[in-house]
Design brief:
Keywords: Coiled coil. It holds the Pfam family HTH_36. This is Helix-turn-helix domain-containing protein. InterPro entries: WH-like_DNA-bd_sf. It comes from Sutcliffiella cohnii. By secondary structure, the chain is mainly α. The protein has one domain: Winged helix-like DNA-binding domain superfamily/Winged helix DNA-binding domain (Arc Repressor Mutant, subunit A, Orthogonal Bundle), CATH 1.10.10.10. It contains 5 helices and 2 strands; from the N terminus they run H-H-H-E-E-H-H. It has a two-stranded antiparallel ribbon. The longest helix has 31 residues. It is extended. The model has no long low-confidence stretch (mean pLDDT 93).
């Protein structure tokens, strides 16, 4: 197997590559209790299936489940979660409309529990960083590298 090339972020469609669109301003939704990173993939799939001329996406639940890698029942429940947080709508059975994500400020105002989840995750991250810095400081001190 040959060496793989580094992904070219400046020219993502190089070599005729296509992508599932996922708005970066939807990433804060992972802090909502009903949303996970995998559900954002499902949101991206709905965006990918969206037919601008028709005004909705209409993949069968089975086809969507295969692409999503989940059972149809799980996929259906995850679609309900995306609807509950306002990322998609179902104007009629089998028809999905991807909606624009709320900005971070709007999202955390509407879902204060998600803001609390975010703050807890950030606090845990900062604690791990501080603990790692302290371990490094002690190691450097033990090895005689520490600044006084």
């Amino acid at each position: 197997m040959g060496e793989r090339k580094v992904f070219n972020k400046k020219s993502p469609s190089e070599n005729k590559a296509t992508f599932i669109p996922l708005p970066s301003n939807a990433l804060h939704y992972v802090h909502h209790d009903r949303i996970s990173a995998e559900k954002l993939l499902l949101y991206g799939l709905i965006i990918d299936y969206y037919n601008v001329e028709e005004g909705f996406a209409f993949p069968s639940i089975e086809k969507l489940a295969v692409r999503y890698g989940k059972s149809p029942d799980t996929t259906s429940r995850h679609l309900d979660d995306l609807k509950a947080v306002g990322l998609i709508d179902f104007p009629e059975k089998g028809h999905y409309v991807p909606l624009t994500p709320l900005s971070e400020d709007e999202f955390y105002t509407e879902y204060p529990g998600a803001n609390e989840n975010y703050r807890k995750a950030l606090s845990r991250c900062n604690k791990r960083r501080a603990d790692a810095a302290e371990r490094m400081r002690k190691w450097r001190q033990e090895k005689g590298y520490a600044d006084n």
